[in-house]
Amino acid sequence: EDAVETFIADGDPASLHVILLISDGLYSCFGTSPCKALDRRDYALEMADYAWEKDIHLYTVSFNKSYSSSQTAFLKQLVRGYGRFYETGTGSDLPGILAEIADRIPVALVE
Q1: Read out DSSP for 3-64?
Q2: Which residue has the higher pLDDT, 23 or 100?
Q3: CB of 24 within 8 A of CB of 71?
Q4: Helix 69-77 to helix 37-53 angle, to the nearest 10 degrees?
Q5: CA-CA distance, 27 to 92, in Å (whole number)?
Q6: Which of 59, 68, 56 is nearest to 27 (CA)?
Q7: From edge to edge, which strands make up the β-sheet containing 56-63?
Q8: Gap between the Cα atoms of 85 and 10, Å rounded
Q9: Which residues are paired to 85 by β-bridges?
Q10: Where on the phi/psi map is residue 85: left (φ > 0), alpha (ψ -120 to 50), or beta?
Q11: Cβ of 62: how many Cβ atoms within 10 Å?
Q12: CA distance 90 to 96
């Protein structure tokens, strides 16, 4: 939610906005208040929809060392707009993935 709000408040409206989420795909709860994994999953999906409503594209990278099809499926569900899903089990793949994402983001030069 903070990333979306930052784009809305401080982003250049003429620019393409992109969020890149790198995650293991596990739903995590932080703080002292009780939380359920499904609540976190639903919240993540709501935030992905909210970002897309604000014309923010979402890429996801699954850092899935001990491959889990549910983690993969969850992160695929978060992709929005020009975004794309990537998966790796090792950090050594990340530079190549990040370079590919950078190459895929449309760029227009204007005066």
Answers
A1: HHHHHHHHS-TTS-EEEEEEE-------SSS---HHHHHHHHHHHHHHHHHTTEEEEEEEE-
A2: 100
A3: yes
A4: 30
A5: 24
A6: 68
A7: 17-23, 56-63, 85-88
A8: 27
A9: 60
A10: beta
A11: 23
A12: 12
Residue type at position 106: P
Has residue 32 got a pLDDT over 60? no
- Give per-residue pLDDT as tens, 61-83: 998 776 778 888 889 999 999 99
Higher pLDDT: 94 or 68? It is: 94
Angle made by CA atoms 30, 50, 33, in degrees to the nearest 5: 20
Cβ atoms 56, 19 nearer than 8 A:
yes
Provide the 3-class DSSP secondary structure of residue 101. helix
Picking from 75, 80, 74, 82, the residue whose alpha carbon sits closest to that of residue 101 is 82
